[in-house]
Amino acid sequence: MDGRTFQDGLGSRADLAGAKSALTDAVRNWSLSVDLTRYGLGTEQLAQVYDQVFFENPGFFYLENGYSYTTRQTRENPGALVVSVVEPKYYGEFTIQDIPAYEAAVKNALSVLRPGMTDFDKALALHDYLAENCGYDDTLTHYSPYHALIHRTAVCQGYLLAYSDLLGRAGVKNYPAVSTSQNHGWNTVRLDGNWYHVDVTWDHANELPEGWVLHTNFLRSDQGIQSTGSLHRDWAAPNACTDTTYEDSFLPSLRDPVLYPPEGGAYFLLDGRLCCSTDLSSLQYEVVSEAGTGEAEDPRTGMVYSPRDARLAYFDGSIYYTDSVHLYRYELASGETSLHGTYSYGGGFLYGLSVIGTDGDGSHASLVMEVRAYPGGPFQSTYTLKPTLSPATAHRIVCPSRGYRDVSADQWYHEAVDYVLENGLMNGVSLDTFAPGGTTTRAMIVTVLYRMETDPSAGSNAAFSDVAEGSWYAEAVNWAASSGIISGVTDTAFSPDTPITREQFAAILFRYAEYRGLDTGTGEPLSGYEDVSRISGYAEQAMAWAGAAGLMTGRTETALAPAGTATRAETATILMRLAELLSQAR
To answer: Which listed CATH number (1.25.40, 3.40.1350, 3.40.50, 3.10.620) goes with 97-253?
Structure first.
């Protein structure tokens, strides 16, 4: 510029509403840029407008909270610099083809709602669904509501946006609360004229047994949310939250999802007692069953089981719940409670309860109880009881991934995950988590290929300094190196724990295919992808072959992402396709 000082935009004359509408339309259409010159925005006003579009449209799961822009002078206002072209930032991993999967996941979440629910019930049911079915992303890479609802792992932004989208579609008014200083965000919701804080992120019972849901951060006042954790301060939100009705009640002590069965009512456990409410927003309820025992002590560990550790689940017209060693059934139609089973194998207590589907004959459902020595401790075993289903409600749900909370039938990788689990090629990262969005290491890939061999020959020691003799992947690495399938990152290092990139994966697959006698000469030079030039020389032929063979496709229609890490879901899908390719070649 020529040294003059320019005004930042047109100030009060700027058309913020028009700019917001234009930017919203551009993002809805996945436009790479939009010209906002005519609206006269300054840079601070652009930040305000972009935040509104981002937070008020959580269904734009593909939109990042960031953008680039240019400014210019206009003939009408030569003394001002106005925002001209804005380029929204989109997550590279998503394409327009991901919209149906996201909408299906939203529909699945909203299925927990029942006709006639109040806004309170909707806010609670959706809070419990998200807190139960989404774990915190310790890799700090999952920011989108897509991650929260489909990958079922996210950081606070993913929780915030997913909960906001669900609430909005359910007709519950909500607004984000964001603390820049604490790098944390959560929701505020409006119920009966009052605003309340809800932080679903902190109500996910991380490190605790499956099925636990906390309510510590549900419907809190400004003062109340500050009392629950140090990250709850210095936030920006337009509405004060002053009502303390719910934080002063029994709600924060609940450690199970509240059940809303089709038969009506809201059921929950309070100090081991099964309670029912026909209007939970009034905080009125009645105790319908007190069959559970009180405290119990494990003689081996001295750990004390509390009645608050009881778990519950709904199935086929009944509420099932546990105490330390018993499973009870409360039949909704008759109001009768019966003892359904007893855990008597010794050691540990029942700290988890979930319905995982039906057996192969379609006549039984399995209620899986988790046996641990103490809450949050390692699993000792699972104990399964099978209540008989009536023929009218019997249905067949049989899949190897049914016990994983982050793999559901509407996800694109579901079939592939089932395949690798059923064939022993991959395992979950824990008893209830597959981590489809997690990374895959170089050692994991080599081990999986080793498992695909019926009778792999013993390989000589590969002499990699970072592959210890006796490690879980040592035999696989030695076999793969001796067979010419892998090479090290240097002459002496394999780097087994490093996440594998997509081009490294393609190169290993290419050599494995040659080892198995497949035709690898069918790959045409890659075209149509903007990042083809970024493929390393050693991987060009392998990437071309993997694409031609249908093993590996682009991350998007225009991006191969050769240096991107291969997710566990992508790995499972590629392995399933590889197995089909090997089968066709026989």
So the answer is: 3.10.620
